[in-house]
Amino acid sequence: MTVKDKVGRKRYILVNTSTSSLQRGRLIHLVNKKFNRFSLRENLPRESNPPWLTVLDSDYAIFKCWHREKATMVEFLEGLELTPGYSGSDRVPPITLKVLKVSGTIKKLKKKIDRYQIMRGVNRG
User: Fold this and answer.
1) Can you give the pTM of this predicted structure?
2) Between residues 2 and 41, which one has the greater pLDDT?
3) Distance of CA 25 to the CA centre of its chain
């Protein structure tokens, strides 16, 4: 048995979102709240943790999870609708997450983000 079998491998999930109006802390709070409901509904083990927000860009987010939970986390994040609430006196529209890619490294997903932004004509720099 190798060390990675004992400790576990990580997977990173690239999600498309328009988070320009949503701060990192609020996004984490909303995802954790939805995950608690999801885990009860799906009868997940108590030790299941919500996906961990690793990277937040203006239109993309990268979540981390264990490789054995990858399918469950992709199912949870795909189409997840988050309602941020109000920003000042204006109501912020709901944000729908869309899973784009799953990888074993953040580096590969960041390259993918760069390609998506080049395709959309956005200059990073």
Assistant:
1) 0.84
2) 41
3) 13
pLDDT recorded at residue 101: 94
Q: How far is the C-alpha of 46 from the C-alpha of 124, rounded, in Å? A: 41
pLDDT on residue 22: 76
For residue 112, give both structure tokens.
Answer: 């993918």
Nearest in space to 110 (alpha carbons), one of 53, 73, 51, 60: 60
| Farthest-apart Cα atoms in the chain, separation | 57
Task: In whole angstroms, give the CA distance from residue 100 to residue 78.
Answer: 9
Q: Are strands 85-87 and 90-92 parallel, antiparallel or unpaired?
A: antiparallel
Amino acid at residue number 85: G
DSSP 41-95: HTT--TT--PPEEEEE-SSEEEEEEEGGGHHHHHHHHTT-EE--EEETTEEEPPE
